[in-house]
Amino acid sequence: MKNFLFTLFGVLFCAVLLKAQNNSMEFKNIPNEELTMTRYAADPNAKAVVLYDKGKSSFVLTDVSFNVMFERSTRIKILTDAGVDYAEIEIPFYHEGNNYEEVYGIEAYSYNIENGSVNATPLNLSNVYVEKIDNNWSVKKFAIPNVKKGTVIEYRYKLLSPYHFNLQDWNFQWQIPVVYSEYMVKMIPFYQYSWILQGANNFTTQNSYVDNGLSRQFGSVNFQDMVHLYVMKNVPAFYDEEFITSINDYIIKIDFQLSKIITLSGATIDVVTTWKQLIKDLSNDENFGKYTKHAENLAPKLFDVEGFENKSQNEKFNFVMNFMKRNYNWTGILRGQASVSAKQFTEIKSGSSAELNLFAVGLLNAIGIEAYPVLISTRKHGKIKFDYPYYNQFNNVLILAKVDGDSIITDATNTLAQNDRVPDFCLNDKGLIIN
Fold first, then answer.
1. Which of 254, 77, 71 is nearest to 176 (CA)?
2. Among the residues of 337-418, which ranges form H helices?
3. Which SS3 state, helix, strand or coil, does residue 83 take?
C-alpha cells in the first residue's frame, strides 16, 4: 500500500509539473520567474534567451488542392541592452507573379514590471511594413514596442502558402541560447518530404503518430494526418567564429524538401531524383539551358560573329565579358534562373545575375568559346549538401569558360572586376556545372 501511495504521488507530481510547463508556454501567460529573471544560469553572458519557440506546419484543404499553413509562437527574455535587437522581427514570404504567401494573425507584446505590476504593451499593427528583397522574396518587419533590459517579449503569426515545395524549415539553434524549441509537422498522404538534421545527431524528443482527430477527405480518399514532433531543449547559443561564411552551414536545424507527389489515382511523381536528372532538367528549362541557346541565336544581331574567326580564344573571351559589362547593368538581384526572356533582356538592358551570366554563356558559345552555367550558393546562403540534389540549395549563377586549355570561372555582374575573377561573396566551396 505504501509503495502504491508513493507511485500515485509521483504520477500526480509529474502531471502537475507537466501542466505547469505547458502553461508556461501559453501565449500571454508569463510566469513571474521569467519576468524577474536577470541572468540565464546556463550562459551568464547571454544578452537574451529564447524561453520557447514553437512552430507547426499543416495542410489546409482548398477547393482543388492544399495550402501549407505555418504557425509560430515565440517568447524571448531580454537580459542586456544589446539584447533589445531581438525585438526587431522579420518574417520572409515568397511570391511568384500574383501568387503570394500570406502573413497574417500577427500579435506581439512586451512585458515589463512597472510599479510592482506587469505592464503589457501590444504591437500596433500599423507599424508593420513590407520590404521587397528581390523578385520572389519580401519580408514583413516590425519592432515590438517598450523593450529594454529585463523585458519579456512574445510574438506569434501565421503564414499561408500555396507552394508545397516551401514547407517551412526549422532552426532549433539561435545566436542566443534556447530553452525549448518545438516543431510539429502534420503530413498528408499526397506529399512526401525528405529531411536533413544538421548540427546534431538526434533530438531531445522525436515522436510520430496518427492524428486522433476527425478524418478528412480529398476526392475519394479518406485520411488522417500523420503528426511528426521534433523537440530540442537547452540548446546553446551559436557564437560566430572567424572565417565562418554562413551560420546556416553550422546551426542546428531541420530542412525539408518535397520528394514525391501522390495523385488521387495513386500515381507517383518524383520531385527529387539525382544530380544527373537535375542537370538534364535545367538544360531543357526555358529559363536556364534554353535561355543560353536563345542568347546564342541573338548574338549575330548584337555584333559581327564571323569577324572573330581569326581571333584568339583569349580575345574572344575578353570581348564578350567586356561587351556584357558595357551594355548591360546588374540590378543587384541574385537568382538561379532567368525571369525574363533573352530577347526581353536585350531590350531592358538590365537584369539579375542569372540573366547576365546565362546570356554571356550564350554569347561565348556563339563565337567559339566553350562555356557552361555554374550554379552556386553564395556565402550567406550556405554551402551545398552534396548528398541531396535540391535545386533550392542554389541562389546564383556564374560562368565556366574554357580558354586556351584553362577553365575560368567568371561573372558578368561586376563592371570593375577583372574578367577572370568573381565577387568575394561567391567564394563558397563548390558549384554545379550544368553541362
1. 77
2. 342-348, 353-366
3. helix
CA-CA distance, 294 to 296, in Å (whole number)? Answer: 5
Give how far Cα 273 sits from Cα of 122, 169, 376, 387, 433, Å: 47, 20, 19, 11, 17
Which letter does DSSP use for residue 39 in this model? -
Please tell me the pTM assigned to this model. 0.76
Residue at grid coordinates 524549441: 181
Query: Which grid coordinates are listed for 115?
Result: 510599479
Please, what are the domains in the chain? 26-270 (2.60.40.3140), 275-433 (3.10.620.30)
What would the DSSP string read from start to end of 340-360? S-HHHHHHH-EE-HHHHHHHH
**DSSP 8-state secondary structure symbol assigned to residue 61:** E
The set of residues, in sequence order, having a beta carbon less than 8 Å from that of 64 and lying 6+ positions away, is none
- The string of pLDDT tens digits covering residues 46-71 is 999 999 999 999 999 988 889 999 99
Helix (H) or strand (E) holding 279, with range, is helix 275-283
- Neighbouring CB atoms inside 10 A of 94's CB total 16
Residues 362-370 have a mean pLDDT of: 95
**How do residues 261-283 score in pLDDT, each as one tens digit?**
998 888 888 776 688 988 998 99
Residues 427 and 20: their CA atoms lie apart, in Å, by 49
CB 399 within 8 A of CB 321: no
Secondary structure percentages of the chain, helix, strand, coil, to 5 = 25, 35, 35
